Amino acid sequence: MKLWQKQYKLNKAVEKFTVGNDYILDQRLVKYDCQASIAHAKMLAKIGILNSAEAKKLEKTLKEIIVADSKGKFKILPQQEDCHTAIENYLTKKLGDLGKKIHTARSRNDQVLAALRLYYKDNLENCEGLVKDFLLKLKSFSKVYGKIKLPGYTHTRKAMPSSIAMWAGSFADSMSDNLKSLAYAGDLIDQSPLGTAAGYGLPINIDRNFTAKLLGFKKVQQNPIYTQNSRGKFESAILHALAQIMFDANKIATDLVLFSMPEFGYFELPKEFCTGSSIMPQKKNPDVFELLRAKYFVVTSNESRVRSIAGNLLSGYNRDLQLLKDPVFQSFEVTLESLQVLNEVFGSLKVNAENCKTALTQELYATAEVYKLVSRGVPFREAYGKVAQKYTR
Fold this sequence. Notes:
Elements: H1 12-19, H2 22-25, H3 30-46, H4 52-70, H5 83-95, H6 97-101, H7 108-145, E1 149-154, E2 157-163, H8 164-189, E3 191-192, H9 208-215, E4 219-220, H10 224-229, H11 233-259, E5 267-268, H12 287-310, H13 325-346, E6 350-351, H14 353-359, H15 366-375, H16 380-391
Parallel strand pairs: 3-4
Antiparallel strand pairs: 1-2, 5-6
Helix pairs in contact: 3-4, 3-7, 3-9, 4-5, 7-8, 7-13, 8-11, 11-12, 11-13, 12-13, 15-16
């Protein structure tokens, strides 16, 4: 039975269209919805809607659902639409009228927001952990290979001498900045929406601070309309942070695809990380980097998608917002998987010192020659001209 069920049957085509794949996506939210429901039940007991025994029965049953879900034994059916309906149906089937009380003082609108934000918080923390792991991998990589010099490039042409330490360090600095973006997104979403109901508050007094504290939110999101208007806005901040991580993954992958080519040979990818060709037996392909490079655009397109879906909507809840789940969930999956792959790769990536040394041809030191003349009192522009003549004859 649907939570909004009336005295008529919904057109089947409309039902299929409006449900979409939400019941599949919501499997990720079952645990979080149950956690929020436990906090909500405790709050209802605190204000006298439930008694202590009822709240404990609800908590026990909700924890049963969490366990069943972790074992893949709690499935949301298409006709249930979402995790909220599946959970309440289970409570009602098992606890009778008590199960029907759980939805007191809330709407699916604030219910889904609470579950989503708990999901977001967990996954932002997971991203943060993997970024920190990658920073350690870069540090270890630099410790082994950092002193090796290799050409630096501008305009895809040799420019000046660089080093593995400088190259790896550029990504370490950028990933450190990415942690700030993750922290900003995490701080932004760390607000409890529970108690704002459909987006216009409730006609009864509840204790929103109590549920916020139980769920570990830093504060309560006060304005009920803003809880709904923040959908899309908060998700955009999250996806922007993820896109910053994937921007670095894209650039690392681009560098390694090029500089692991035999024609360069600066980096060596172990054969266990390479795929092959079905027709050319000699091939060892850097597919892992090519896919890593492309997945940046999956996240940036999802960021654009979220901004577009959330734009031009009247204040308050609109069903359009249901479509935000898919791009956000996918972007978390892509980013987490990409960080795991980067950690794996940099645990085995090697640098060919001899190829790097051979590539350090004389023109890379042209700028150094200019500054030798400058140190002897020759004006910079004159020194530049003299060295330029040497390399442009």
